[in-house]
Amino acid sequence: MKDIDKSNVLLEEFRNVVYWDLLIVIKKIGGGHLEKANIALGWDSALNCPRVELAESGAVIDGLNDNQGLKQFIKSALNKVYRYQGEFIFEENIPF
Predict the structure, then answer these.
(1) Does residue 18 sit within a domain?
(2) pLDDT confidence of 5, banded at 50, 70, 90?
(3) Range of 42's domain?
(4) Looking at the domain assignment, is residue 36 inside a domain?
(5) Which is nearest to 71 in space by CA: 32, 11, 30, 18?
(6) Is 57 domain-assigned?
(7) pLDDT digits (tens, 9 = 90+) for 40-70
């Protein structure tokens, strides 16, 4: 997961697994429309864990990080697709 180029090989599969659940929760907490292509992964070297990066406001990101049910689902998806077991965070990603 630390190597973004390698992680991107499986990114589309990860997006397919998590998209609908993420979209539903984002809508429930007042976020905008989520485009599947705007789901990205990164690595947080300070926390030593992956980041699920989304083009959403800080308030929505905070809500996602506080949603334990969604976090458990994403952990399961990270394990299924990447064989990664451990913590992760949601983080704001500003697409260019």
Answers:
(1) yes
(2) confident
(3) 4-62+78-92
(4) yes
(5) 18
(6) yes
(7) 999 999 999 999 999 998 999 999 999 999 9
User: What is the crossing angle of helices 58-66 and 11-28, to 10°?
Assistant: 100
What's the burial of 34, exposed, middle or buried (CB within 10 Å: 0-12/13-18/19+)? buried
* pTM: predicted TM-score of the whole model, two decimal places: 0.91
State the amino acid at position 60 in one-letter form.
V
The domain tally of the chain equals: 1
Contact 1, 84 (CB under 8 A): yes
Q: Report yes or no on 14 lying in a domain.
A: yes
- For the purposes of burial, counting CB atoms within 10 Å of the CB of 46, is it exposed (0-12), middle (13-18) or buried (19 or more)? exposed
Q: How many other C-beta atoms lie within 10 A of the C-beta of residue 13? A: 13
